[in-house]
């Protein structure tokens, strides 16, 4: 799991950092640290992986993510996530 994947997945799900933290059951500061490229405990990334997988987000090799479409065989790439000037997702 790469930091950019968490940002992209959050954007795809329409969640703020705080919402992701609450729903995934992890500390928001840990997510913020990870998204900024810092090191966090394995339990944090494990919880994020589980949350994202159960919400239809698949991490793909490298630094991409994709959301499962309504059909299990069809995938919709998430490739138009941008960041604003303060590093947030828009």
Gross CATH architecture = Orthogonal Bundle
In this structure, how is the largest beta sheet organized? 3 strands, antiparallel
* CATH homology superfamily: lambda repressor-like DNA-binding domains
Instruction: Specify the helix fraction band.
Output: 40-55%
Number of domains: 1
- Give the overall average pLDDT: 80
Strand element count: 3
The CATH class assignment is Mainly Alpha
Q: Strand order within the widest sheet?
A: 1-2-3
Termini separation comes to: 21 Å
> Total number of helical segments?
4
What's the Cα radius of gyration?
12 Å
Which regions have little confidence, pLDDT < 50, spanning 5+ residues? Answer: 70-83
Shape: globular
What is the CATH topology?
Answer: 434 Repressor (Amino-terminal Domain)
Portion in strands = 5-15%
Coarse structural class:
alpha+beta
């Amino acid at each position: 799991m790469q930091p950019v994947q968490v940002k992209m997945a959050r954007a795809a799900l329409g969640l703020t950092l705080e919402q992701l933290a609450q729903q995934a059951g992890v500390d928001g500061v840990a997510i913020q640290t990870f998204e900024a490229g810092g090191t966090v405990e394995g339990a944090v990334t494990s919880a994020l992986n589980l949350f994202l997988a159960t919400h239809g987000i698949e991490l793909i090799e490298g630094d991409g993510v994709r959301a499962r479409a309504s059909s299990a065989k069809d995938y919709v790439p998430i490739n138009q996530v941008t960041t604003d000037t303060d590093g947030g997702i828009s």
